Amino acid sequence: MAQPVIITPGDPAGIGPEIALKAWQAGRRNCVFMGDIPHFESVAAGCGLDISFKDYQGPDDCGPDDCGPDDCGPDDCGPDKQKCPVLPVKWARDPCPGRPDTANAAAVITAIEQATALVRQAAFSALVTNPIAKNTLYEAGFSYPGHTEFLAALDQPASRPVMMLANAELRVVPLTIHVPLSEAEARITQADIHNVLSVMATDMKKYFGIRQPRIAVAGLNPHAGENGHIGRFETDILLPALQTWQQAGGKAQLAGPFSADSLFHSSARANYDAVLCMYHDQALIPVKTIDFFSTVNITLGLSFIRTSPDHGTAFDRADKFNARPDSLCAAIDMAQKMARQRLGQP
Predict the structure, then answer these.
(1) CB neighbours of 108 closer than 8 A, spacing ≥ 6?
(2) Where is 257: in which H helix or E strand?
(3) Residues 308, 339: contact at Cβ < 8 Å?
(4) Which of 115, 147, 280, 302 gives the lowest tally of CB atoms within 10 Å of its CB?
(5) DSSP letter for each residue of 314-333
(6) Considering Cα of 39, then 41, then 46, then 49, what sign does the dihedral take?
(7) Mean per-residue pLDDT for 45-61?
(8) What's the CA dihedral at 165, 344, 206, 251 to 10 degrees?
(9) Residue 343, class by beta-carbon neighbours within 10 Å (0-12 exposed, 13-18 middle, 19+ buried)?
(10) Which of 31, 130, 48 is nearest to 328 (CA)?
């Protein structure tokens, strides 16, 4: 069995603590949750969950991956392993669901740093991050555009992260992410295309066991530019970049560029392992339409495994305790599957 997964608290006023406890109750037991036990006890009471907690001491505190709440007893993994293991985080002020507090921002940042260091030291098999609120963290000196860039900076030497969204039916990678659509074409270079393709090819083999990944490439323009009649990006930038990467020994089978409007239906998905998309919504709309609740955000290109739910802090509903944990459960499952694949385990 792989080392346990570590799960960061995210913003403690958001739904992160709630979905973490619901994931544990749903059977995700080879995990350690970062947070404050009194706060977790309060959240558990709000959710109506009967959960006991303990300070995390080491891997023996965690149950097996498939140990659900109804499966674990004295004859199996012992009553102590029915207690949720917590790696302590000290909040400056008691978190209040739905009310983000800049006083706790420094502890959120420190928790991410601590978790990343522990994963890089192999104390844990993977990092699963709960959602953060960047505007709250900026008050504590956070200077990164987001979680992913921060993790890349903590990964020394600094890595070139690639965001993948994945579920059981589809994997997508957006080449440009949080940039205006009016700027997307100008932001894309052949070097960007080569770098992202190389990371995809390497990590899909390492973490998904796909020896030579089949990568379909979506065009930027309608009908993939229609041979230059609806824009020149595909003919002048994209297609030459794909050809030179393949000729230089790229370790993947490339196909495209294709018109995005016919690339994501079920028959088309049978022909590839992942899609390289040109911009944010081109990637996220199809993957979330196919499975809105169980899609996972995966960061490729790091020296360690990182996954996260594909949603935010949901401050507006955090005090209602009715959030669904599906995406976090899927993120934990994905992280553990990737860790086993890296170790060559089934």
Answers:
(1) 9, 10, 11, 12, 132, 136, 137, 140
(2) strand 253-258
(3) no
(4) 280
(5) -GGGTTTT----HHHHHHHH
(6) positive
(7) 90
(8) -130
(9) exposed
(10) 130
Backbone region of residue 113 per phi and psi (left: phi > 0; alpha: psi in -120 to 50; beta: other values): alpha
Q: What is the mean pLDDT of residues 37-63?
A: 90
Do 130 and 323 meet the contact criterion of CB atoms below 8 Å apart? no
Residues 21 and 15: their CA atoms lie apart, in Å, by 10
pLDDT digits (tens, 9 = 90+) for 169-213: 999 999 999 899 999 999 999 999 999 999 999 999 999 999 999
Query: Does the reported pTM lie above 0.70?
Result: yes
* Residues pairing with 255 in the sheet: 216
* Beta strand spans in 89-239 (E): 126-128, 162-166, 171-174, 214-218
- Helices 147-154 and 105-120: angle between axes, nearest 10 degrees: 50
Q: What are phi and psi of 17, to 5 degrees?
A: -60, -40
Which amino acid belongs to residue 71? D
CA distances from 188 to 12, 33, 47, 193, 194 (A): 36, 38, 45, 7, 11
Beta bridge partners of 222: none
What number of residues does the chain have?
A: 346
Instruction: Count Cβ atoms within 10 A of the Cβ of residue 304 and give its class: 0-12 exposed, 13-18 middle, 19 or more buried.
Output: buried
Given the DSSP bridges, would you call strands 31-35 and 253-258 parallel, antiparallel or unpaired?
unpaired
User: How many beta carbons lie within 10 A of that of residue 143, not counting itself?
Assistant: 9
Residue owning tokens 């899927």: 330
Residue 81 is predicted with a pLDDT of 58
Residue 225 · residue 259 · CB < 8 Å: no
- What is the distance between the alpha carbons of residues 34 and 27, in angstroms, rounded to a whole number? 17
pLDDT 10s digits, 303-326: 999 999 999 999 999 999 999 999
Q: Are 25 and 111 in contact (CB under 8 A)?
A: no
Q: Which residue has the tokens 């339409």?
A: 289
CB 224 within 8 Å of CB 188: no
* Interacting residues of 24 by C-beta distance below 8 A, sequence separation 6+: 31, 33, 51, 84
Residue 189 near residue 293 (C-beta atoms within 8 A): no
**What residues form DSSP beta bridges with 299?**
163, 306
